[in-house]
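Batch job 17 of 40 flagged for manual review because the log was empty.
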Amino acid sequence: MNRCTSIAQVLTLAMLTFLLQPLHAQQKKTTPAGDDQDSSYFKTELNYISNSLYNGRKDSLAVPYLNASFGYYHKSGVYISSTLSYLVSSYANRIDLFQIEGGYNGSIGDNFVYSASAHKDFYNQYSVSVQSEIKASFNANLSYNVANAVKINAGADYLLTSGPSDVLFNAGLSHEFDFGENDEWAIEPSCMASIGTQYYYDKYKQTRHIKTGKKKKLSDSSTVVTNTGTVTTTTTVTTLNPNKFIVLNYEFSLPVTYDSKKWGAFVTPYFAIPLNPATYVTTVNTKRVTNNGTITRTKNTSSSTEQISNTFYIQLGVYLKF
């Protein structure tokens, strides 16, 4: 066990201990610091993320996105928005994702914040994003500010994938430092842990081996014609025990935001530490048919361990409210 893993496990125990206390639950904000809910408004945003990670996992190819979004935020807390994600990579430049989101942001007093949302995702068929097999999701988040000293955050996600559904939980701690003449500037160091199942990742691995990022093979089967007959080879990749609840990752972030009445900007560096690498099973089925009709079938199975590594990535953007 390396030092990073030991520290991460201690942090998780501390987070979960906090969550067992009444009302001490919370999650990341879904709107930037300072968003004014006293009146309704439209919001448009343009941001860039250097790599698309999910639960600390990433593809072997970097997936940098330029995201453009537009939404309407009602003073009651209800909102609806859409986001277009354009892939800006060395291997392809295209629209890789379109997402529709609707939800509600609310609060009780000054210290308790909550939200609920639903997302519908439309990924490009060539996408190599680790989230590309997620079709829709439902999210609930809570945040409780303890004596203006620490925010305790918690959330739950229910993912509809191309296979079985996933359930994920996250918990974290943060503290917001506000400054400026009207507290328009904020810095909020945060740490977070995620726990859950990985059916979405299993489906991603099953389809990933037939993608190059810019094109997709017709299938995972190939047929070769020889002088003596034909040989058909079919390859499948699956993940062992995607239904197990495991700690998936720890993530540290340092959001810096500027939020005024009409516009804002932000930059957020992240450091992700993935845990519990998955085990993959690769099965190769071979069917040989000779010219006289004789059929021979063979099956070879091998296993491998997911290669995971710590990752630094960054997101930055600007937005207008009107």
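Reviewer: the log was empty due to a logging misconfiguration, but the result itself is present. Residues 1-36 have pLDDT under 50 and may be disordered. Unflagging and moving on to job 18.
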